[in-house]
Amino acid sequence: YCRNLSRRYADQAEAELRVAIAAAPNEPVAYNNLADLLLEEGRTTEAKSLIEQALSLSPRNRGPYLDTLGWALYLLGAHGQALTRLDEAVALEPTPTRLYHRALVYAALGQVPRARRDLDEARTYNPDPALAHKIRRALDELLGEYRSPSAPPM
Asked: What are the two backbone dihedrals, phi and then psi, of residue 6, each rounded to the nearest 5 degrees?
């Protein structure tokens, strides 16, 4: 039941965001919001296209858009490009979400100390409970995956 309800809300949100884009095609916010929604649904290529459209509109606050693009690139496996965009987003404003996203890219690139540093920093911002849980899981995975069997717990 919950899955059907969530699907219905996602479909409704997608339809409303597409109406918003049609009504104001030069406003980047709806593009970014729709891209976020599509990323949640695994529609990564479509989301990347939308966020590139949003960035082409030269939004004043580029940080959220760069974060969304970086996350899409990460999900597409383009880790080097993802890191570039997420570095830009974090430089503009280091939010817990941006740090979390960049940490996962660092981990994918084998840069575990940097990943851990970003995850530790993200926790200092008191992220919302859902993100805090993701951060804790990512830290646990990093520590479990990269700690040798003889290494003491951190």
From this structure: -60, -40
